[in-house]
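Researcher: Batch entry, complex prediction.
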Amino acid sequence: MLLRSSLRGVRNSRAFRPQIFPSWNSHFSTASKPSCDPRYPPRALNFIGGAFVDSQAKEWVDVINPATQQILSQLPLTTNEEFKAAVSAAKQAFPPWRNTPIITRQRIMLKLQELIRRETDKLAKIITAEQGKTLKDAHGDVFRGLEVVEHACGMASLQMGEYVSNVSSGIDTYSIREPLGVCAGICPFNFPAMIPLWMFPIAVTCGNTFVLKPTEKAPGASIMLAELAKKAGLPDGVLNIVHGTHDIVNAICDDDDIRAISFVGSNTAGMHIYARAAAKGKRIQCNLGAKNHGIVMPDANMDATINALVAAGFGAAGQRCMALSTVVFVGDSKSWENKLIERAKALKVNAGFEPDPDLGPVISKQAKERICGLVQSGIESGARLVLDGRTIEVPGYAHGNFIGPTILSDVTGEMECYKEEIFGPVLICMKADSLDEAIKIVNSNKYGNGASIFTTSGAAARKFQTEIEAGQVGINVPIPVPLPFFSFTGSKASFAGDLNFYGKAGVSFYTQIKTVTQQWKDLPSDSKVSLAMPTSQKL
Ligand code: NAD
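Model: Structure tokens for the complex:
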């Protein structure tokens, strides 16, 4: 955990961009100092029972701009009493909310999507300041979340049950999907808007109430989304926000009133949460880490493929769970590597607010160290470093956590840099003699989030689609994340649980099925008692 004292020396560094935060009204507290001396840094507020409230926490975490090390705000480790108050607010809000007509719940989502659309610029600026991604990419972060809100606007159809008439004489059976109660969401740093929007819009439109724990590294977008949800008409207590790290996550796992948990983040945290919450009988969906491969066939369109590899490998500084972090060149396509290096070299690395950067910094100093360590381990185990971005200097941002595009070639399956998720702007290149061999490489990896093939052969694409063990498959598409009418379908070590995020599975996750069997018929007056198991036909 980064503490303010550790950064005192650099907090006044260049590119100090305070305009985003102090002007950033109600969700950050500036109240503890007189108005002529507004509190700086401002403090992130909890959102409990419809009110933004200052925490009584004793411990606080700095939220730091990764390009400058400026402390943007301080985030509380929400106290246990505050957490309990949030769960209690959600529990109290549940009965009236579940009884609110679905059409009303949908209309609130319609309003929310309008407000998010209107405030996209502001949300994007908050994301760029806290998370570091480029402004353009931050807009994409908001937009991909907005699509889930739009999808939630059609919840009445999505939540429809089933009906079979006359399952037996005069008897009908139908099923209804009912909300679970209080649900919770635990979020990662890399998509500060999109991932909270994967969670609460679907959950609450199904009739649940929600406790959201944003990432401690970039909480601003979640707080602003809560404000917009309130403005859109979401009743008090339906959405609540608490802050913190491990302790609050454990409290969420242990709480008897929370029925379901949506988690997105690393495998270490996710598997801990999965085990701990499952022991309490909760429903859980965990989207986890990844190592996404792109298989390049020699018959692919070279130009388009190289552009796709560069964009998907280095976009968002490689901090996407669907970043294409490994290329497997098949046969002669290996010779394309030089072109790949050339194009990666041309990418512009800069702070996200500067004009037209291609990639910004990684999230923290620790992340940078970890990424560089994995690159070094690759070199030491025999990989060739054909492009080295580790010592990049970005003028004016001496303290930023920048890493330029980095490419490791001749990587093999047993190297640590291949086995571990790097989560940085590092592309790993491997080679295979045939498509069979390339598929074998991909399938040997423990992760199964996404995999793509680049080819002009329908037969190769079909073989790949059938044999590849990844949940999201791209054919000439580098980042095959489906739109929300499908689900986000990572598999193997990239997912724990049974029901995926959004799409039909997302609605199933946030609802439980009740089946009703009804009999409406005139019963004969001379009927007899029968203790045999009822069946639909007389034997
Ligand atoms: P992280 O696991 O460090 O943090 C995620 C959340 O878990 C945070 O809210 C954090 O406070 C909490 N947390 C972290 N460690 C914990 C622990 N030991 N006990 C309890 N709670 C803990 O993840 P991150 O660094 O924020 O995000 C990056 C990771 O998320 C990458 O592995 C990436 O692949 C993954 N991710 C996956 C998807 C997907 O859809 N598969 C999407 C985005 C990110």
